[in-house]
Amino acid sequence: MFVVEHLSKTYADGTRALADISLKVADGEILALVGGSGCGKTTLLRLVAGLDQASAGRIAVDNETITAPHPFVGIAFQEPRLLPWLSVADNVAFGIADLPRAERDARVADALERVHLAEHAGRWPRELSGGQQQRVSIARALVARPRVLLLDEPFSALDAFTRASLHGHLLALWEATRPTIVMVTHDVDEAVTLADRVVVMRPRPGRMFETITVGEPRPRDPLAVGYDKAKRRVLNALDRSLKTAASDATAKTASGASLWW
Amino acid sequence: MNAPQSPVADTVLANAGANDGVPPVSASRVWPSWRVMLGIVLPLLLAAGWELAVRGGFAQGRLMPPPSRIFATLADLVRSGELWTHVVATLWRVMAGFALGAAAGTLMGALSGSSETVRRLVDPTLQSLRAVPSIAWVPLFLLWLGIFEASKVALIAVGVFFPVYLGVASAIEGIDRKLIEVGRVFRLGRVAMVRRVLLPAVLPAWLTALRSGLGLGFMFVVAAEFMGASEGLGYLLTDGQQMGRPDRILAAIITFALLGKLCDTILVLLTRPLVRWQDTARGRL
Ligand SMILES: Nc1ncnc2c1ncn2[C@@H]1O[C@H](COP(=O)(O)OP(=O)(O)OP(=O)(O)O)[C@@H](O)[C@H]1O
Ligand SMILES: [Mg+2]
To answer: What is the ipTM metric for this complex?
Structure first.
């Protein structure tokens, strides 16, 4: 169980990135965060990963308060962040250097297989496309087998086909070890295909706007009535979140020069 | 005779065009070397022109000896072994000064790059010292360290120190915080963070700094050997001036050029395996 209680984050420059977020995520649940650009999705993941300190509130995984990076929690950043001096395989192995060699190699091979990059193991990151780099960074987060896996727009740079196939692999992996997954996405279909719950956020300050539970059994059929219903509810909530945010912004200050989507 | 071209010929031509990708590869291999040769054309022409002018009696070549005489002098210096004495002396000074300057520059750069306090403490002083022209140190070093090797090595070390110091300090300051966060996520300790993230991240900039340090070392060795040396390529220069032997001066200059380029090449070749991952043309000579 992983709990977020009254979490707020105000950056040093006064930006209120998050205000009073409360959230309970059950073990093995998949949660999708959606919302306009700048509504604090990345900030929330960074706090959960222990990379930044919250201004108020608390995050706990199994009753253990998170204030620093924790072995239970893994993250794939919004950018690939591969270390350019390591080969693809060494990048994936970066976080499991303590494991015995054989075990490490096996895990790396398995993770690369899952993200379809087995044949690129020996390459340098600069020799990969943006989408391939992103997959390496997912593999790097996977090999450490975290209990809570944070994915920040993990599939955003991928074509629809690769994306669908990686959805399959992510679900297969999730079936196997049942990690809790919190993923940020701008793709409503992706959210509804993968998540148990979709949290719609709204900006300035970042808050939870609406939570939609997707009750459909997996694997989900995009043509099923339930799928379509859930998707409509998410789209509708998003629409409203953006509208209220936009009117908020114009009402308060004229500084609302941000991109919504 | 203006028969319409046969469709077959058209296809062949089109194919030849489409397959362009293959043959030009070899063509482009020839190209660069040909273009490199282009750079040699001008000096060669000038040299040949001068040679002809002197031989033809249009010029005396007393102050600017023709290439043949310079190479004859060079050959003499090689044969008599004199050149090696000078080369070894110069090389030894450059290496000693380079080692000291690079070590000190790396250490200070690392301290100043990683600690705000140290940077505020030492950087202003070092920056103003850097602005002092190298030759200005000569009298002081002579006074402090005497006219022998120590003062020369010290001067070279000063020359090497600054580019290395600056390069290392700014490389450390410029390390991508996002990569450091990757280390934090996997809970690297201090030592592991330095070894697995910070060092590799600054390595390319450090090597570049060493390279410019080495280049400055070769500049400063001339100044150092002007301080009064009895051997070394710099000595060969002043000696040539005093004896009125421009051919010896030019021979020394040519040797300097070759030696400097050789050392730089060796440094690049030795360190290239360390930065294989880099996507730059810097490794090329
Ligand atoms: N280090 C920082 N310092 C100051 N403000 C920040 C910082 N990081 C983020 N912000 C601000 O906090 C708000 C939330 O940013 P965040 O990156 O969490 O948004 P996001 O929802 O992930 O957006 P996107 O969908 O574009 O990735 C934004 O207004 C942003 O400008
Ligand atoms: Mg983000």
So the answer is: 0.84
pLDDT, tens only, B39-57? 788 888 988 998 898 888 8
What's the CA-to-centroid distance between A168 and ligand 2, angstroms?
23
Domains and CATH numbers, chain B: 67-274 (1.10.3720.10)
Coil, helix or strand at residue A67:
coil
In angstroms, rounded to a whole number, what is the distance separating the alpha carbons of residues B9 and A84?
A: 49
Residue A21 dihedral angles phi and psi, to the nearest 5°: -90, 125
Which among B94, B201, B101 is positioned nearest to B149, based on CA atoms? B94
How far does CA B94 lie from the centroid of its chain? Answer: 12
Q: What are the angstrom distances between the C-alpha of B55 and each of A155, B141, B246?
A: 75, 47, 18
Q: Min CA distance, A81 vs chain B (Å)?
A: 6
Domains and CATH numbers, chain A: 25-52+64-72+146-260 (3.40.50.300), 82-140 (no CATH)
CA A18 – CA A6 distance, rounded (Å): 10
pTM greater than the 0.80 cutoff? no
- Only one residue has tokens 């490490």, namely A104
From the list B185, B197, B203, the residue facing A69 with the nearest CB is B185
**Token pair of B278, please?**
């880099």
- Spatial separation of the C-alpha atoms in residues A162 and B133, rounded to whole Å: 61
Angle between helices A130-143 and A101-114 (to 10 degrees): 140
User: How far apart are the C-alpha atoms of B171 and B175, rounded to whole Å?
Assistant: 6
Question: Hey, is the C-beta of A99 within 8 angstroms of any chain B C-beta?
Answer: no
Measured distance CA(B177)–CA(B232) in Å, rounded: 47
What sign for the dihedral angle of Cα B123, B126, B132, B134? negative
Return the structure tokens found at B132. 């002092």
